[in-house]
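assembly run, all chains below
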Amino acid sequence: MAESYATDHAVSHPALQHHFENMEQQREAGALGMWVFLVTEIMFFGGMFLAYTLYRGKYPESFEVASNHLDIWLGAINTLVLICSSFTMALTVYCTQIGKQQLQIFFLVLTMIFGLSFLGIKAVEYKQKYDDNLIPGRLIPGHPFNPAIQEEGAPADHHKLHLIPGATVRNVELFYWIYFAMTGMHALHMIIGLGIMLVLLYFSIRGRYGPEYHNPIEISGLYWHFVDIVWIFLFPLLYLLGRHIAGHG
Amino acid sequence: MSEHIVSVRVYLAIFMALLLGTVLTAWVAFFNFPGPLNAVVALTIACIKAGLVILYFMHMRYSQRLIGVVFGAALFWLVIMFALTFSDYSTRAWLPIF
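ok done. output:
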């Protein structure tokens, strides 16, 4: 086997690590390694999806009320923005594979712009929740889920919620714990992704990646698409379920 | 096995399908389907979208089989986690010990 590789021009590529036979093997090993990491990520987010499913089943009315308070337009626009960023990331990989360096940099920057737009819209949403006193936890200064209101069972104008029979502010708070945990972890993954892209951008400008060597672009793309997939599930679960209940929302 | 380069046309088709799926899922969320069908429809669309991203954007369709096995293992353990947890929670009320 070793002799047959000796004629492969890729063997002499400066990016080939000594423990790999050739560029092909190195590329496949890198992709496999990234997928193994993504498996741990699937299990990590899976735990939170499990908590969500469990409590949605236990307190359906409260979760519908809380769900309907989220801004469906901002959620939908963010989904579209993220899909656009996944598309431009796929094109970044494509342009690297065919050796179009300028386009590769262009699409990489575009992906980062979409990613930043997502985070910006997310920040607007978080601000709205803060204004409606929907940040869970007693330690948020001046804006708690008010225990006094919960105990009186009074209409929760404090939170601008439209409570239906069976729904309680306390369980709405539970929804928002899960909402902030999941979207927060998702946003953190995006911030990390943007950091990775900054490094990719630096090396792309220096012309390190081309048709023969583009593992970092490819596996960063895998990561970015994974983050996109998490949101593809978060959007219907957090924003959409319960929308069909008429009379509020 | 050399690297497969997915064409721009395929990427574009998947991109359009994903946009369409997003609009569709937001639209049908307001329909009043009987029983738990709203959740079923929403999750079905989400699974199809995720499948498209995995198969084409993440190149699963053109990759080594081993990557498919690794991903399948993740789904397998995810199912175990959900199944065992729900078998616990759904049967807790059966015995009057709590």
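The longest helix of chain B spans residues 65-91.

Chain B touches chain A through 49 residues (CB under 8 Å).

not gonna interpret more than that til we talk
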